[in-house]
Prior knowledge:
Structural class: alpha/beta
Number of strands: 13
Order of helices and strands: HEHEEHEHEEEEHEHHHEEHHHHHHHEEH
Strand order of the largest sheet: 1-6-7-2-3-9-5-8-4
Largest sheet: 9 strands, mixed
Number of helices: 16
Organism: Micromonospora wenchangensis
Amino acid sequence: MFFAEMGLTQHDSLTAAQQAASEAASASGGRSFTCVVFQQGGRLMLTTAFSNAFLINHVVAEPAAKGGNPRMATNRPMDTTHVRAISKYLVENERNYILPPVTLNVRSVPAIHVPRGNFATTVGFVVIGDETKFSVTDGQHRLAAISRAKDFLSDPDSTFMGDSVSVVIVVEPDLARIHQDFADAAQTKQIPASLLAAFNTREPLNRVLTKIVDGSTLFRSRIDETSKSLSKNSPAIFLLNQVRGMVKELLFRDYALSESSIPARSNQVIGTTERQDAFVERTLSMMEMLTTHMTPWQAIAELPTSGGPANQVVDYRKHYINMTATGLVIIGHVAYEIEKNPDPGWRTDQYLRLSTKIDWRRDAEIWQGAIISGDKISTTRAPGRLAAKRVMAAIGLPAADVVEGAPQGAEPLLRVEI
């Protein structure tokens, strides 16, 4: 009954509906698309797939002007930086990418042919003429990126424009309701940084990160890879994103390097499989040395990863700097300086000193006035850098003298300064 009320043309069979749509498309110079027709929230909706070429020709972007009145447009202002980022992703991964569905709007019901029946959902055929234009409810940046990407594809035999994107089409003439649809569609839950790091292995930094976690005696099965924050009573020792901060220090000497800068920097420093493997090997060597000799890491490595004894981690976290994200960053910063030296024996000696000569307890004098003030631990850059300088001085490692005395003919440095 709903489909009839919405003006859809009903037929005695699916074959009859398909034939009628094909004839209508031929007569009007349009195209017939197989679709699923359904009702949602009292409105008629369709879902189908359109090729990239079709989307470019039939979807009209109506973004609001920055500083203008957004109520007169169908979508928010266009973020050109976001468009460039998506376009770059598409060009670089032309044969291995994914784009989520986009939501389009059409103001009036197009010609839709469906089989007759009392169905809540049915297969149908929608006829779209050359004059039919859609506006964007959700996905304008993806569509703009598709249009931009086609101009940067160098392969003349590229099939990119023939690729398709799943679309949901909402029949809605009311501009205010279109705005509300956009606001409703934007109510998505942000992916925790740790989970994103675990899943997004297209990024070289995340590839080496997961290998380090899996290969480390201390980290293996003790890292929370899904949560946004670490519960006070969690037996996990760190979030994956906290370990990622240490790895960023090891690679770039900057745990706070912006996410937009990481791909280019990663490609320069660990852009090849060989460099990634070498970095993982040296980092795991460092981790094993620290885990064997550093308090309380060596004790934690002996604990089971679950059950009552694993809860000792909670107590260690209360009392030790190297059980915090700040401590990991300090270790990464000092290790960055140590790794500048090409002599593996010298590096091993320095990691042994880092493990045994530093008092990692929170109440140790070395941390007071740097990252510890009263019973609070600072998580900002300047106090962390001050604490790292104190650690380097304590183990006899002034930053300017790190590579002095390196033997001739030693193995080449892994890291490339940028």
